[in-house]
Design goal:
Blueprint: E1 6-10, H1 11-24, E2 29-33, H2 35-39, H3 43-49, E3 55-58, H4 61-69, E4 76-78, H5 87-93, E5 97-100, H6 103-111, E6 118-122, H7 139-153, E7 163-165, H8 178-190, E8 199-200, H9 204-209, E9 217-218, H10 235-241, E10 248-260, E11 265-266, E12 272-273, E13 278-283, E14 300-303, E15 306-311, E16 319-322, E17 334-338, H11 344-351, H12 355-361, E18 367-371
Parallel strand pairs: 1-18, 2-3, 2-9, 3-4, 4-5, 5-6, 6-7, 7-8
Antiparallel strand pairs: 1-10, 10-13, 10-17, 11-12, 13-16, 14-15, 14-17, 15-16
């Protein structure tokens, strides 16, 4: 028998979550963010689950190849653009839209002899990761970039010219989008934005918390996977989460049971000492599978259909569980680490991780299954 650790992708719930997110986005078109292998769900499942999205936003040329190979014919956006000049030809062949966030990328595109499908100019509105920071540019620098952007407009084969976006760092915080939005608008003026060119501002949190920023395109990510961007979602996001469904389940089985007495230890390093005589279930999952090692004793876990608690330290291949709440547990009893009954955010909170980390951290040795309908 193969090891029972399994990641089940609930593909139909991706579709249902997209419907809910579209209800929030009014008339905006949706870039469904599927980077990092569809946030760990697999590009194939993301493409099928988000088949009604207006476009897919991803990170790497390889992901774009896979999307096209699987039959995605609608727009694809490279969120960080190309990583070298050679990739421009591949982007042309795949008909990719792409972000430009620095002068090197701008120069590569100007020198490129082929056709550019759609170019999104990224503005640094305060996150200080990627994007053009017009606040620190000299007048000469602003003029040079504006002139080059005008040249680039002539190379882009779409009726809307250039396109513009930014990324909000704290959209779930009170007034978290106000200053970045102002910076974005000022930057558009500095870089000679032409009315009618498309704009994309909102990520998952902004889509919910600052709907006034839901412009031509929105770029939801983690909400499509039924989870929040932080472990302390505000009331607006909590309300939306109630309408969303889990999109994956990480599960395994009990593979061993120990009966221990009061004051005995469980696992490495004497980290857990029993307060009474208990049965301990040993489940076949560990940090080498992507279950977070930082999960503390008391982290919820489902055994059979009963909520139980993790005890002791998560090891490479195994976890240990207090079976007090599930006295009928035996070898082969199913265990849900997160999914339908134990939410990903519960595990994220208990392990000081984010749902992003849980979803993208499940390793290759965990068997995958897909429930399509």
């Amino acid at each position: 028998m193969s090891r029972p650790a399994t990641l089940t992708i609930l593909q139909q719930n991706l579709t249902k979550n997209l419907v809910q997110v579209r209800n929030l986005s009014d008339k905006s078109r949706i870039w469904a963010c599927v980077k990092a292998g569809g946030y760990g769900h697999g590009i194939d499942s993301a493409i099928r689950g988000f088949s009604e999205a207006d476009g897919l936003a991803l990170l790497e040329i390889e992901e774009a190849y896979e999307a096209r190979h699987l039959g995605w014919n609608k727009p694809l956006l490279l969120l960080e653009g190309v990583f070298n000049e050679r990739e421009l030809e591949e982007a042309e062949n795949l008909k990719l839209e792409m972000v430009i966030h620095n002068e090197d990328q701008l120069d590569w595109c100007l020198n490129f002899k082929g056709h550019l499908t759609g170019i999104w100019i990224k503005i640094n509105s305060g996150m200080n990761r990627l994007g053009f920071n017009t606040q620190t540019m000299s007048k000469n620098k602003l003029k040079k970039i504006s002139d080059n952007l005008n040249l680039l407009r002539k190379k882009v084969i779409n009726k809307n010219g250039l396109r513009w976006l930014t990324h909000f760092a704290s959209a779930d915080q009170p007034n978290g989008c106000q200053i970045p939005s102002n910076i974005f608008q000022i930057s558009l003026e500095h870089l000679n934005y032409i009315p009618g060119e498309l704009i994309s501002l909102s990520n998952s949190s902004a889509l919910v918390c600052s709907p006034e920023n839901n412009s031509d395109w929105v770029r939801p990510g983690i909400l499509l996977y039924g989870s929040p961007s932080s472990n302390k979602p505000n009331s607006k996001i909590e309300k939306v989460l109630k309408s969303l469904l889990p999109t994956q389940t990480l599960s395994t089985e009990i593979v061993g049971i120990q009966s221990i007495r009061k004051n005995e230890y469980v696992g490495y390093g004497t980290a857990y000492k029993s307060n009474s005589s208990i049965r301990v279930g040993v489940a076949a999952i560990g940090y080498a599978d992507g279950y977070p090692r930082s999960a503390q004793s008391g982290t919820p876990i489902l055994v059979g259909n009963k909520k139980c608690n993790l005890i002791g330290v998560v090891s490479m291949d195994l976890i240990t569980i207090d079976l007090t709440n599930c006295p009928d547990a035996k070898i082969g009893t199913p265990v849900e680490c997160w999914g339908n009954s134990v939410s990903a955010i519960e595990i994220a909170q208990a392990s000081n991780r984010l749902c992003y980390e849980l979803f993208t951290g499940v390793t290759a040795r965990v068997r995958r299954t897909i429930i399509a309908t």
